[in-house]
Design brief:
Blueprint (H helix, E strand, L loop, with lengths): L3 H14 L5 E3 L8 E3 L28 E5 L4 H21 L5 E7 L1 H5 L9 H11 L6 E5 L6 H38 L8 H17 L3 H23 L6
Parallel strand pairs: 3-4, 4-5
Antiparallel strand pairs: 1-2
Length: 244
């Protein structure tokens, strides 16, 4: 969300550098941590993309929402950017989406062309005061990202570390909820109207997720469980029970 032209200018560098460094992925249930590389698909913010109640999909809605701005003008922030961020956050709250990040891009070249600017970091302070409350880490600064300098690279590295951390946190939380919902659905398999075909699609999506993360053993486990469940249904059907 936010300044689409700004994001477009930074996207090639972002998509190239994001998966470069691995992240340690820790999950619950005593599973051993694993090192994974994060690759993300960035899409323009639209309310219709947000998950709805009862949505069992995991791959079709965004996990982390990012607002981009390079505003350094006092009046522009008051009259435009603040209202835009407010509307964005209100939509997220309406859909119970709590995973977000605001990125303020600072450019010395842009500041030189402005006369009515706030002192350095003041826009960031205002955004943190207006929107972040006790989550001041949800507003980060990206300094001169298109410059070839050590300051620019340090800024990129700090931003990428924050982005990877938030992406992994959000993904792990959503994955855990998806697995809980899947288990609940599986436990209803003896109830009238339960469909193995519908359930298959849910657990297969989980397998796709593990495959995307190159966790192939975990992906195979999903198919093994589906095979065992299907075999049991075949046995039940042979004994005069219900199949599928």
């Amino acid at each position: 969300a936010g300044d689409q032209n700004l994001f477009t200018s930074l996207y090639p560098t972002l998509s190239q550098q994001l998966p470069r460094e691995p992240m340690e992925w820790r999950r619950s249930y005593g599973r051993a941590p694993k090192m994974i590389h994060l690759e993300s698909n960035f899409v323009q913010f639209k309310e219709e993309l947000l998950p709805k109640e009862g949505n069992k999909a995991l791959l079709t809605f965004p996990f982390l929402h990012i607002y981009w701005t390079e505003c350094c003008d006092t009046e522009l922030y008051k009259t435009t950017v603040k209202d835009d961020i407010t509307k964005w956050q209100n939509v997220l709250k309406a859909h119970s989406s709590v995973d977000w990040l605001i990125v303020v891009v600072e450019s010395d070249a842009k500041k030189k062309n402005k006369t009515n600017i706030l002192p350095r970091t003041s826009i960031v302070d205002k955004i943190r005061n207006d929107f972040c409350n006790k989550q001041s880490d949800r507003c980060v600064v990206l300094s001169d990202p298109l410059k070839d300098s050590s300051r620019s690279q340090e800024s990129w590295n700090a931003f990428l570390t924050k982005l990877r951390t938030l992406l992994l946190m959000s993904f792990t939380k959503n994955l855990g909820k998806f697995e809980d919902d899947m288990r609940t659905l599986r436990e209803k398999r003896t109830e009238p109207g339960w469909s193995f075909c519908e359930y298959f699609m849910v657990q297969e999506e989980l397998a796709f997720v593990f495959e995307m993360l190159q966790q192939f053993e975990d992906a195979l486990v999903q198919y093994d469980e589906l095979d065992a469940l299907f075999s049991q249904y075949v046995v039940n059907f042979g004994a005069g029970g219900k199949c599928l």
